[in-house]
Amino acid sequence: METKENGEDEQQVVNPWKVDAKDGGKIDYDKLIDQFGCQRLDQSLVNRVHRLTSRPPHVFLRRGVFFAHRDFNEILDAYEKGEKFYLYTGRGPSSEALHLGHLIPFMFTKYLQDAFKVPLVIQLTDDEKCMWKNLAVEESQRLARENAKDIIACGFDITRTFIFSDFDYVGGAFYKNMVKVGKCVTYNKVVGIFGFTGEDHIGKVSFPPVQAVPSFPSSFPHLFSGQDNLRCLIPCAIDQDPYFRMTRDVAPRIGYHKPALIEASFFPALQGETGKMSASDPNSAIYVTDSAKDIGSKINKFAFSGGRDSIEKHRELGANLEVDIPIKYLRFFLEDDSELDYIEKEYGAGRMLTGEVKQRLIQVLTEIVERHCRARAAVTDEMVDAFMAVRPLPNMFN
Amino acid sequence: MGFSKEQLLARLKELQIDFSQYDHPVVLTAKYVGHLGGGISKNLFLKDKKSRFYIVSALAETKVDLKVLSVRLGLGKGGLRMAPEEALGEILQVPLGCVTPLSLVNESARNVSLLLDQRFKSQEFCFFHPLSNDMSISLNTNGLDKFLKSIERDPSYVDLEANPSVGKDQPPDLASLVPSNSLVLPDPPETPASSKGRTENKVSVGNKSTTSTAITSKPSINAQDRPANITDVGKMVDDLLDMTSSLLLKEITENFKEHGEELGEVLSKKIKSRLAAELHSTIMMFKNTAYTEGFHAGVNHHPKRTY
């Protein structure tokens, strides 16, 4: 079936380097699922996760933040039979400033690691940022290490986690797989998937295999030697889907399982769905370095509200929950389902005011950011070295 | 202990680096060697808000603007100050008035970043203090580079007078020279303005800032003894019990009227859900720190003697 592979449509554009909704509107996720050809993550799968892990599913699953998947049910089938899998996620270290949106895949991956008791590899694509953002090699390596500290602060278990940067790790078995993958993807195909042009340099064109091969256990001989059959699950934001469509296409041709994917929707900017979260606008997002005061003032001043212009109108019509940012953020971060339901009901009916909702949000976010800050302060360079050391992980499935 | 002047000179000779030495009374200015030709160095020992240290070594005539350097290093405006007097002795292990790139030979200075004036290269030789200010030695840049490489440092020559614009698309050009040391202390309370007179090697006196302010009322980690704190089991148990009992008291007073007999059960549920994330984070950090310390020990351990 001919789908437009690089996510281009007359309307919305979604690929690893560009996310644009139609005419400045919202991203249509149903259409995206259709376009990409992945599956909706429905309630029955969420219930299945609950059963298999004997613990309540993560808030992101309950609220549909992670809403799409490829072959997640196969991973669960195998898991039920006693077959393990490993997790693979990553970050492109393009800036030192991390905001909450950046943390979302990592928070979810940590939950998966704990719930299923499986190992995790985290790829820092310093080479990619060096090429796409024109950073010096040393600077991208430095950013990778700095970002690693924030990632570690999300609470990953060092006895089951391997963090690596491309500049450090590419070579050996990893590179052999890169060449195998490269041989299976024509130039035309990669142009079709990623939209490269004749003006793009060859570094970019040959990058895709780097992000593909961590899906194959043989890329990590120090971890998975002798386990060529081990499956891989990739939690990521849905804009990364093109990389892994390519990978899934190639995998059976070189004798590996197709990696499974579990995909998240985008985290909205403070100014609303149509706004863009950008590193250069500190008021478009909540950063992990923000103080309680900053968080308070950002939410109060910049969070786009669905409340009405006047109190009377608000009491009459209720808030517009579709565009209200504080409600959307609470959907991501307020753990208590019954409290969220209550707030949505009261706010939607106009009995609760925007100020109260924002207050609650500020509390929730401050707790998260402060906890992250404390954990971050405990991360030393030695700890980063240990997470990034090429070492065996003997208890990774315990 | 730090290197002595004699040890340093002996090391330079070992490395076959040419230099000439001039003894003179201890002074804070260059009045005794000003007539000898060559370039006089002025050396600044600087500190940023995250307590990372820098030596900026420049020709006396080069204008060094700390505000510009701060932005070029990616520290924002006003991120660089003169380091306090105590740091000179603690980190560089040299006396007052004696900041010199040669002090990087000391282990204690291993995380200090060095910025060298590229104008040194146009000089036949330059004068530096060899760890004490009763002598100056003249070295050319080849000699200096050779010495730095011998202590595993990369000589970084920088156009100190340049003022490139820094913004979204132009990252700070000197950002790679910021040390990535392990200790990240919280922002110290503001030190009084450092004295502006910048004669060679003068280091201003600032208030030593050792107190770290607790960020929240929850048990915070004092960064200075951070690793010890985290693996201190007794302290962790105390902190966790404190957290639990204060939450308990708060919830009792809030919920007493509402729940009456069922108070116990309601509270127990609340406590479990509110504390779970906190406990998890703390204990995971504990595990990771313990592993890291073990790993470090393993990497550095001396194998058993078999003879």
Describe the structure.
- The complex is a heterodimer of chains A (398) and B (307).
- Chain A has 20 helices and nine strands.
- With 398 residues, chain A is α/β, with parallel strands linked by helices.
- A seven-stranded mixed β-sheet of chain A has the order 3-4-9-8-5-6-7, with helices on both faces.
- In chain A, helix 2 packs parallel to helix 4 and helix 6 packs across helix 7.
- The longest helix of chain A is centred in the last third of the chain and has 24 residues.
- Chain B has 307 residues and is of the alpha/beta class.
- Chain B has seven helices and eight strands.
- In chain B, strands 1, 2, 3, 4, 5, 6, 7 and 8 form an eight-stranded mixed β-sheet that branches.
- The interface between A and B is medium-sized, with 33 and 35 residues.
Order of helices and strands of chain A: EEHEHHEHEHEHHEHHHHHHEHEHHHHHH
Order of helices and strands of chain B: HEEEHEHEEEHEHHH
Tell me the radius of gyration of chain B.
Answer: 26 Å
Helix content of chain A: 40-55%
Specify the helix fraction band of chain B.
Answer: 25-40%
- CATH homologous superfamily descriptor of the largest domain in chain B: YbaK/aminoacyl-tRNA synthetase-associated domain
Low-confidence stretches of chain B: 181-226
Largest interface, Cβ cutoff 8 Å: A-B, 33 and 35 residues
- Principal-axes geometry of chain A comes out as globular
Précis, in short:
Chain A: Belongs to the class-I aminoacyl-tRNA synthetase family. The complex is a heterodimer of chains A (398) and B (307). Chain A has helices spanning 29-36, 43-53, 59-62, 72-80, 100-116, 126-132, 137-152, 166-169, 172-183, 187-194, 202-205, 208-212, 221-224, 241-250, 292-302, 311-317, 325-333, 337-348, 354-377, 381-388; strands spanning 13-15, 18-20, 39-40, 66-70, 85-91, 120-124, 161-165, 231-237, 260-264.
